[in-house]
Design goal:
single chain, alpha/beta, 6-stranded mixed β-sheet, 15% strand, globular
Length: 295
């Protein structure tokens, strides 16, 4: 529900066009309740960058409204969330993973359970794009964590049609529906998620699954790991789906398939600024996967 008109008196200030655009986004129901960057055509074009000619390319269909997630509509939600162009391929990968039928996004965003899709980033792209994977990994203050996670949630709301006052029937709701993203630490002593799922150590992956709110586990009665884990009430009611982002230091790979129609741009060359193209990959196990190759 938007702010009642009686509380808007005197706002936005006369002549403040930017504030007026933000208010229009609220009135149109495009926000998560927080301020956004209005997705003007110029901003969406800038975020699309070299893929601007493929703006109408269909990436996925998102339930429950079966909305068409094109490059343009995903980019518009990235602008709303405050992303920069390098964040776009990560959001696209997450959208593709969520759209997999076996992920069952429809149940995750329309049921009464207080769950939300959570995005897990792992691999070299964590450091490359500046995701926080250390202390306070799930708190506010990091742009990549906050905006990429928020863009994914806005895609669910604005493209998929799930949101407050609509078809979202969660009994208590979930704070992760603002932004729910974590990144794997490159210095962790445990085996990284990407190799556990069958990907190469040099790959970067995006895994999406639905989860309840974070739980703080404090066991004061045991000091051995197995006893602590046996008492950990951590669970995920829905299956995970994974997307791979494979980063390369130079050149462009020759994809086996190009179902999304993102060709290698003519300006791509060794040493050029980081840029991406998406191709289809063979998924490990039962995961849904795509590949995002970076120069």
């Amino acid at each position: 529900m938007d702010t009642p008109d009686r509380f808007r008196a005197g706002w936005p200030p006369a002549g403040d066009e930017h504030a007026a655009q933000v208010e229009r986004c609220h009135l149109m129901g495009w926000t998560d309740g927080l301020p956004v960057l209005p997705p003007t055509p110029e901003r969406v074009d800038a975020l699309l960058g070299r893929w601007i000619e493929r703006r109408h390319e269909l990436i996925a269909t998102l339930p429950p409204a079966q909305g068409e997630a094109t490059l343009e509509t995903i980019a518009a939600n990235c602008v709303l969330a405050g992303c920069v162009p390098d964040h776009l391929p990560v959001v696209v990968a997450a959208v593709q993973a969520m759209a997999a039928r076996r992920f069952n996004l429809d149940a995750a965003v329309t049921g009464v359970n207080s769950v939300s899709p959570v995005v897990v980033i792992d691999g070299p792209i964590v450091e490359r794009l500046g995701f926080n994977s250390g202390a306070g990994a799930m708190t506010a203050g990091n742009r990549a964590n906050g905006t990429v996670g928020r863009a994914v949630q806005l895609c669910i709301r604005n493209i998929g049609g799930a949101g407050l006052g609509g078809i979202d029937a969660a009994t208590h709701g979930h704070p992760g529906k603002y932004s729910y993203l974590v990144a794997g630490s490159p210095t962790s002593p445990w085996e990284p998620l990407r190799t556990r799922l069958g990907f190469a150590a040099g790959d970067s992956i995006v895994t999406v699954y639905s989860a309840e709110a974070p739980l703080c586990i404090a066991d004061m009665g045991h000091d051995d790991p197995l006893s602590i884990l046996r008492r950990s009430p951590v669970r995920s009611p829905f299956p995970a789906r994974t997307t791979r982002i494979s980063a390369r230091n130079s050149g462009w790979s020759s994809p086996r398939n190009m179902p999304l129609g993102w060709p290698e741009p003519a300006s791509a060359r060794t040493g050029s600024p980081p840029s991406f193209t998406i191709t289809q990959a063979s998924p490990p196990g039962n995961c849904e996967a795509t590949v995002c190759t970076a120069s």
